[in-house]
Write a structure and sequence with these properties.
By secondary structure, this protein is α+β, with helices and mostly antiparallel strands. The chain is about 25% helix and about 20% strand. The protein has helices at about 10-15, 35-45, 85-90, 110, 115-125, 130-140; strands at about 20, 50, 55, 65, 70, 75, 90-95, 100-105, 145, 150-155. The longest helix has 11 residues, at about 130-140. The structure holds iron/sulfur cluster (SF4).
């Protein structure tokens, strides 16, 4: 989904978005109910329910980074069942007051090196922003609160569509 700006080889080498600690465990990807069985069978894990959808049941120890159970040596092992959160990361749908916005996380070094103009053009081209907002309406739990300082690249125009 992000091939134009982020090569899969870069992700496989980095994996920063696949490790979590106690402070960012809210970033653990949401696994949609329709993918639950396939993910559980592939990884031999039991997912934890969160608001009708699912997340990996991971234990944290302060600042120690714990890798997602789906993270392999060369990247994500979930293939077609890779969570939507991960397909679009480092972009995020955030709530900001009454608004929903698309932001970019500065944690991804590769994408953060690109000019904001390039990122804004990417997000607003080819229906990418609309796709994210539509998915957020279908699965509201992928919407996370806005974090101060994260660049805003798009604002939802037609929340009812
Ligand atoms: S599901 Fe895959 S891409 Fe997402 S955090 Fe886990 S290993 Fe990384």
């Amino acid at each position: 989904m992000l091939k134009k700006i982020l090569r899969s080889e870069s992700c496989a080498k980095c994996r920063v978005c696949c490790g979590f600690d106690d402070g960012d465990k809210w970033e653990i990807p949401l696994i949609f109910a329709e993918d639950r069985r396939a993910v559980e069978e592939k990884l031999g894990v039991k997912l934890a329910e969160r608001g009708g959808e699912f997340v990996f049941d991971m234990e944290f120890d302060g600042d120690k980074v714990v890798y997602c159970p789906a993270a392999g040596e060369h990247g994500c092992t979930l293939g077609e069942h890779k969570p939507f959160d991960c397909l679009i990361w480092p972009f995020r749908v955030n709530s900001l007051g009454e608004l929903r916005v698309i932001t970019v996380s500065p944690v991804c070094g590769t994408v953060s090196e690109l000019p904001l103009k390039t990122l804004s053009e990417f997000v607003n081209a080819d229906g990418f922003a609309d796709k994210l907002f539509k998915k957020a309406r279908e699965h509201p739990d992928i919407v996370k609160p806005y974090i101060d300082g994260y660049p805003i690249l798009a604002v939802e125009n037609n929340p009812k569509m």
